[in-house]
Design a protein that fits this description.
Layout (H helix, E strand, L loop, with lengths): L1 H11 L3 H14 L4 H8 L3 H14 L17 H13 L5 H12 L6 H10 L16 H18 L3
């Protein structure tokens, strides 16, 4: 009965770690010793003991991964609202997006990349969040333009 439940679990599980846990327990139930199982599966004696105990307490459910991933900071509706809000604006700043998320949804991302991904999803390059090129120097541009014009005039056929 136990062996059959482990066989089914091994057959249908998609996770390598769950399969290793079940295989270790199955081998133990089939009479293998810890020192025989360890090199075959590449696990420790403690690993085998831990999952044997979990199996006898909770069956194959005890061998399943407990981690199901982290919950996103924004739910789907909030995420959609933020993207639509960004699309409705003419100008954007990263600070403004950070403030909007913090004040309306109490969300602050650890990485700037998360904010950039919201801009990207709204069809906005995050580099467009500045109203002007910070390196733009109108005098320098005018002088380069004059030099180019004088070169063009000089090179024109007469």
């Amino acid at each position: 009965m136990w062996i059959q439940s482990l066989d089914n679990f091994i057959k249908y599980s998609q996770d390598k770690l769950e399969i290793t846990r079940a295989t270790a327990v199955k081998m133990l139930l089939c009479g293998y010793k810890h020192k025989e199982i360890m090199p075959i599966l590449g696990v420790s004696s403690g690993f085998i003991s831990k999952w044997k105990k979990a199996f006898f307490q909770n069956g194959v459910e005890g061998l399943k991964l407990a981690y199901k991933g982290s919950k996103g900071f924004l739910d789907i509706q909030q995420h959609t609202e933020i993207v639509e809000w960004l699309r409705s604006k003419e100008r954007w700043t990263l600070d403004e997006l950070e403030y909007q998320l913090a004040s309306k949804y109490e969300v602050a991302f650890e990485s700037k990349q998360s904010y950039y991904e919201l801009f990207d999803e709204a069809g906005i390059s995050w580099k467009k969040t500045q109203s002007n090129n910070p390196k733009y120097d109108s005098e320098l541009v005018a002088s380069k333009k004059k030099k180019l014009e004088s070169c063009w005039r000089r090179d024109e056929p007469k």
